[in-house]
Amino acid sequence: MSLPGTLLDVLGNPNVTYLLFIVGIVGVVAEFHHPGTLLPGIGGALALLLALIGFSVLGVNLIGVALVLVAVGLFIAEAHTSGYGLLALGGILAFVAGSWLLFAPPVVPTGLPAVTSGSRVSPWLIALGTVVLGGYILLVVRAVLRTRHLPKVTGAEALLGQDGVAISDLAPRGTVRVAGEDWTAVAQAAPIKAGEAVEVLAVEGVILHVRRPYEWTLPEHSSR
Fold first, then answer.
1. According to the 3-state scheme, what is the secondary structure of the chain?
2. Which stretches of the chain drop beneath a pLDDT of 70?
3. Given this model, what pLDDT does residue 109 score?
4. Backbone phi, then psi, for 191, in 5-degree steps?
């Protein structure tokens, strides 16, 4: 048997084609949410191409394909929200139904030829595909989206709110050690003795404004 013939014979297995279809979707979604990685996108595109060849061999129920794609859309929409609700549930139901109908013959008038082989994907493979695709989008993609929305704090600004220790007396100026580095610091409230804990309130150039943790002062002009 020639190589093309062998490939078509392999892709004639609905489980193989279905698996390639799911891997292709995961790869494309991964590339979309991790642009520039290339490998998931290239692998996903190749898997989808092979799945399309398998569809041409087996015949495909477009309703099943549409349900799977709707499920992917629902999973992605759920990943952009907090918690797990109706979108996730709808995605799971649509994915399972679409997977089961993927190669099932659609209802056609009597006498017309069926457009699919009537094959079914293994229920175990459908369950695995649901876990892999739904889990990836709802967990991994959601985590990536949350990371992108975190405030980017770099340099001296990253020291805000951090704890440290006074290396010398601050009366009010002295030296503190924060994040493993020594900084010139100014005590914002009462003088701070060497060895006492400090908390960074503000950063002004290379000078930190600090106080003792939980220390506070009365407003000016207030009575004591």
1. CCHHHHHHHHHCCHHHHHHHHHHHHHHHHHHHHCCCCCHHHHHHHHHHHHHHHHHHHHCCCHHHHHHHHHHHHHHHHHHCCCCCCHHHHHHHHHHHHHHHHCCCCCCCCCCCCCCCCCCCCCHHHHHHHHHHHHHHHHHHHHHHHHHHCCCCCCHHHHHCCCEEEECCCECCEEEEEECCEEEEEEECCCCECCCCEEEEEEEECCEEEEECCCCCCCCCCCCC
2. 1-5, 35-36, 82-84, 106-118, 147-158, 214-224
3. 44
4. -55, 150
What pLDDT sits at residue 41?
83
- Count other Cβ atoms within 10 Å, centred on residue 137: 25
18 contacts 99 by C-beta, under 8 angstroms: yes
Could you give the CA distance from residue 64 to residue 62 in angstroms, rounded to a whole number? 5
- 155-211: CATH topology: OB fold (Dihydrolipoamide Acetyltransferase, E2P) (2.40.50)
- The reported pLDDT for the residue numbered 93 is 92
